[in-house]
Amino acid sequence: MNYRTFGKTDFKPSALGLGCMRFPILNNDSSKIDEEKTIQLIRYAIDNGVNYIDTAYPYHSGNSETVVGKALQDGYREKVHLATKMPVWLVNDFSDFGKYFNEQLTKLNTDHIDMYLLHALSKERIDKMEKLNVFKFLDKIKNEGKVKYVGFSFHDNLEAFKHIVDLYDWDFCQIQYNYLDENYQAGVEGLKYASSKGLGVVIMEPLKGGTLAKEPPQKVKNIFDNATTKMTPAAWSFTWLWNQPEVSVVLSGMNEISQLDENIKTSDSIKPNSMSNYDKDIIKEVQLTYKKLTKIGCTACEYCLPCPKGVNIPKNFKIYNQAHLYGDFEGCKKEYASIPDTAKASNCVECGSCETKCPQHLNIRELLKTVKNEF
């Protein structure tokens, strides 16, 4: 495992971090984690050099932190830097900061959190947090030794990102970044800006919700197949990220040992600034091709769920994207027809609650209409 720099700190994180939002589940229910497989997965990652574990209060309907806490018993807690996040959207007064933080300590079965983030910040959310004296709270838990490093995860535009970076003496930040999102949200400019300010930069959604790890559309597959460099689609994505010296940790929501093995192997072979110009050109060609084919920028994070009417928003968008990516409209129509009526796009009543929670800022109501009309 390669280890990298983490901003102005002396922490050396593993190039690959384990994201805890997409654990193995039971009965197709994301709230029901397969604990046995998950604990085995987490400990296997740590045994093979991963020292950064990232969870959050809402992951797996609030159950991720509890399972992570179980996995880090038997001496594993001391081997990692544990990251979790304050659910800022639930905070309405100063006392709420302590309430949720202490609940997280209990769920994680620990007396301290190494990396503590304000979750999914936007300009609107940081303004509210400032009014509630969040920085006073962060200073307090850091001075008490309950937290080692403080940071934030982010979903808004570049201007808002720079504003938040400059507000406080952060240790690190977490941004959505992959070769399809090079200029989206914080983007490459935000990456370089945060790094120049001494922040460690943690990458989430490196495979855009798994899209970049799957068997690619034929037009993309042809580009990779014709390249003299041979890598899996996932390895191309990670190579592009780890080539950038400003990247401190790349989180991946791996739910199989085989995925861990592949990604660890890739991390071992890539150092900053080692990617050839030829390989960079391959990625540029792939970028252009994907952007022409992808219709909806959903990462299946499920922040929009539960829908009050039961619409499975990510499922609808996944099927719609697959129809366009792979040109399989008849097959995808059949898959759409198999969804329960309550979960179909046609069951949307346009209440808009999903749009307030979407990190991608998608116009979900209009997009669901598009799905309904096409299928």
Provide a quick synopsis of the model.
Helix content is 43%, strand content 14%. The chain has 375 residues and is an alpha/beta fold.
Write the element-wise H/E pattern from the N-terminal end onward: EEEHEHHEHEHHEHEHEHHEHHHHH
| Estimated radius of gyration | 20 Å
Sequence stretches where pLDDT stays below 50 over 5 or more residues: none
What does the main sheet amount to? Answer: 8 strands, parallel, barrel
Number of helical regions: 15
Distance between the termini: 46 Å
Q: Note the overall shape.
A: globular
Q: Write down how many β-strands occur, each being a DSSP E stretch of 2 or more residues.
A: 10
Give structural notes:
By secondary structure, the chain is α/β, with parallel strands linked by helices. It is 43% helix and 14% strand. It has helices at residues 35-47, 59-62, 64-71, 94-108, 123-131, 134-143, 158-165, 187-196, 218-226, 233-242, 257-269, 277-293, 313-326, 329-337, 364-374, and strands at residues 16-19, 25-26, 29-33, 52-54, 81-86, 113-121, 147-154, 172-176, 200-204, 249-252. An eight-stranded parallel β-barrel has the order 1-4-5-6-7-8-9-10, surrounded by seven helices. Helix 4 links the parallel strand 5 (81-86) and strand 6 (113-121). Helix 1 (35-47) packs across helix 3 (64-71), helix 3 packs across helix 4 and helix 10 packs across helix 11 (257-269). The longest helix is centred in the C-terminal third of the chain and has 17 residues, at 277-293. The model has no long low-confidence stretch (mean pLDDT 95).
